[in-house]
Amino acid sequence: MKKKLINTLLIIIIAALSVGGGFLYSKLADKYRREKYPDKYAAEIEAAASGYGLPKAALSALIKVSSDFDASKADEEKGRAGLCMFTEDEFVYLAALSGERTDPRLRYTPEVSIKLGACMLNEFFREFNDWDLVWAAVYGGENYALSLYTDGEKDLTKAEKDTLDFIEKAEEAFETYNSLYPSDLTQSVTHVQTEPQTEPEITIT
Question: pLDDT by residue (tens digit) across 96-126?
Fold first, then answer.
C-alpha cells in the first residue's frame, strides 16, 4: 500500500513538472520571438497601415526585413537609408505620391519612412494582388516582379534564389507578426488610389 502511494505521488510530481516545464518553455519561446520580432513603432505602423488599408503585419514585416527597425541604418554603397531603406529617388517619388515633403533627409524620420513604406506596399499590391509578387517587387523592383509570370500566371520558378530567400524571409516575418501581435488589420487590403507620378524603379536591395 505504501509503495503504491509513493508511485502515485511520483507520477503526480512528474506530471506537474512536465506541465510546468512545458509552460516555462512556451513562455521563453514567446519571449524570444517577441525580442526577435519587436512591436516597435507600433502606433506609427498601425496608423500608416490603416491609412492604406494594409495588414499591419505586412508593414511590420517590411521594416523587419529592410532595417530590423534601425531608423539610423544606412547603406552608403547602395544609397539606401532609414527604416524602409529607400534611395533618394524612391523616397522623393513616394513622398510626392503620398503628399509628404520630398526632402531625402526625412528618410531617417521613422514616421515618414513608415508612411512611405505603406504607400509602396499599397502600390505594389494594387499592381500584383499577390504577396509573393509584392515581396519580389520590394526586393528586385516592379519590372522584375512583372517578369515572374508565365502565360499570365505567377511563376516563381523564374525567380532567382536570393529573391526566393527574401520572399521566404518576408513571409515568415509577416506570419510571425500576425501571430504575435493580432490586429484588426490582418488580411484584407483596401487599395488606396494615389496620384500618378513619374515612377523610379523601387527596390530595397
Answer: 999 999 999 999 999 999 999 999 999 999 9
Judge whether 114 and 48 are in contact, CB under 8 Å: yes
* DSSP state letters, the chain: -HHHHHHHHHHHHHHHHHHHHHHHHHHHHHHHHHHHS--TTHHHHHHHHHHTT--HHHHHHHHHHHHTT-TT-EETTTTEETTTTB-HHHHHHHHHHHT----GGGGG-HHHHHHHHHHHHHHHHHHH--HHHHHHHHHH-HHHHHTSEETTEE-GGGS-HHHHHHHHHHHHHHHHHHHHS--S-SS--PPPP-----PPPP---
Q: Are 52 and 192 in contact (CB under 8 A)?
A: yes
The closest alpha carbon to 175, from 46, 67, 57, belongs to 57
Residues whose CB is less than 8 angstroms from the CB of residue 174 and which lie 6 or more positions away in sequence, other chains included: 55, 57, 58, 61, 131
The rounded distance, in Å, linking the Cα atoms of 144 and 45 is 27
- In whole angstroms, give the CA distance from residue 42 to residue 22: 30
Task: Tell which phi-psi region holds residue 76, choosing left (phi > 0), alpha (psi between -120 and 50) or beta.
Answer: alpha
Which residue in this structure is represented by grid cell 529573391? 163
Q: What is the per-residue pLDDT across 126-178, written as a single tens digit (0 to 9) for each?
A: 999 999 999 999 999 999 999 999 999 999 999 999 999 999 999 999 999 99
